[in-house]
Write a structure and sequence with these properties.
Order of helices and strands: EEEEHEHEEHEHHE
Shape: globular
Helix content: 10-25%
Strand order of the largest sheet: 6-5-7-8-9
Strand content: 15-25%
Largest sheet: 5 strands, mixed
Length: 193
């Protein structure tokens, strides 16, 4: 789908399967009041005609992780999970030795995503610096623990703006070494049984 003009999104992320085939798009619109709106766009087969059409609708659960093609292209690379595609893309630029990913729909939907692709991988979580970021990190760590994966969670930085994430770190001029030092300061996530 191609949206242009005043309806053009401010960002578009492409979700693929491990082979790079498109599963869905995720669009973001930044509103004048500073808020943002997201919408997935997925390809569906119309039952009555068999025709393929794009709809503003999410794919059925479990949702795919962002960047599955990159994840499978680098099976030995450590993985960093961020909250949101913008943060995952920034983390990928800051951490070229890692593969970065996220689940669709942010903080409250980690449980709807298929994290089984991270089995047998080294996983770090880069949380947003706020309560929802901490909740997302805890949710992802619990999901991974149930899969037999031990995740390490980087600390919430004390002297940053609320919500600070990898995209903010990149905008603030962090270099690759700073990002790596931060991620590697992670500790094993504490997950209640």
């Amino acid at each position: 789908p191609n949206l242009t003009g005043k309806n053009a999104p401010t960002a578009v992320w492409v979700y693929t399967d491990p082979d790079g085939q498109i599963l869905q798009y995720r669009y973001r619109w930044d509103k004048p009041d500073g808020s943002k709106r997201f919408s997935p766009i997925t390809l569906w087969k119309v039952a009555t005609t068999g025709e393929l059409q794009w709809f503003y609708s999410k794919a059925p659960n479990p949702q795919p992780l962002y960047g599955l093609d990159r994840l499978y292209a680098r099976p030995a690379a450590p993985v960093v999970v961020c909250e949101g595609e913008k943060a995952a893309d920034a983390a990928a630029r800051l951490l070229p030795d890692f593969v970065t990913t996220t689940s669709p729909n942010g903080k409250s939907s980690a449980h709807k995503a298929d994290f089984s692709h991270l089995k047998n991988r080294q996983v770090w979580i880069w949380p947003d610096a706020d309560k929802s970021g901490q909740a997302y990190a805890e949710s992802v760590a619990a999901i991974l623990k149930a899969l037999g994966v031990t995740a390490l969670t980087a600390p919430i930085l004390p002297d940053v703006e609320i919500g600070f994430d990898a995209a903010d770190a990149e905008a603030a001029g962090w270099n690759q070494q700073q990002a790596r030092d931060y991620v590697e300061s992670a500790v094993e996530a504490v997950v209640a049984d």
